[in-house]
Amino acid sequence: MDVKTLFNVKDKVVLVTGGGRGIGLMIATGFVASGAKVYISSRSAEVCAKVASELTAMGPGTCDSIPGDLQKEEDIQSIIQKLSEKEDHLDILVNNSGANWAAPVDKYPSKAFEKVMNLNVNRVFTLTQACLPLLRAKASAEEPSRVINIGSINGLIVPNLETYAYAASKAALHHLTRHLASRLGPDHIVMMAETLRRDGEKIVAGIPVRRIGRPDDIAGACLFLSSRAGSFVNGAVLVLDGGSHISAKM
To answer: Any coiled-coil ranges, and where (predicted)?
Structure first.
């Protein structure tokens, strides 16, 4: 076992959706800091370009911008086309873009439910499907390609907030991850679902480790899943919540 290379992702090609802010930015930053070649995508071309420039300046890896609206199938095809013009393969796809909507059950809009489910589930499948040729290009039993889907603790437990579409979509995403894993494993493409909870300082008291998640928590988990150390993980839901989902609720 070579410990020096066990968590190495240097020069790997990574696509992170929603990489311009929040969790996506944390993930992209972690990969760039580890020497990977990262592409970020989100609706705002301006934000994407700014973040890509800043991360490349930080190094030692690089970051490039491929903006697009993940709600739209045509934008997904455009993203893949632009990525294919720059790279002949893709090592890691991080499906991070997502939407949320809260409303009382009696007034929850049908269009809102459809929008959330479309981005959080349908388009994850659409993008993963579109990326398959690039993901398969250099995948091997020794070094499989990875697909990391960013889920939510709300897909594992019933949330207090009236976010019906979000909770349902994340539960669906977890199962979609397992389903795809069973099909894509033989192609040396392994699937993981990263489950996160970020509700602010007010929830610290309910977290057994008594703190909220930090950028290095999410980056570290993704680096593990994307490196040799995590190459045997497939179809798993890795919960990053400080133990919130197992703490007693009185």
So the answer is: none
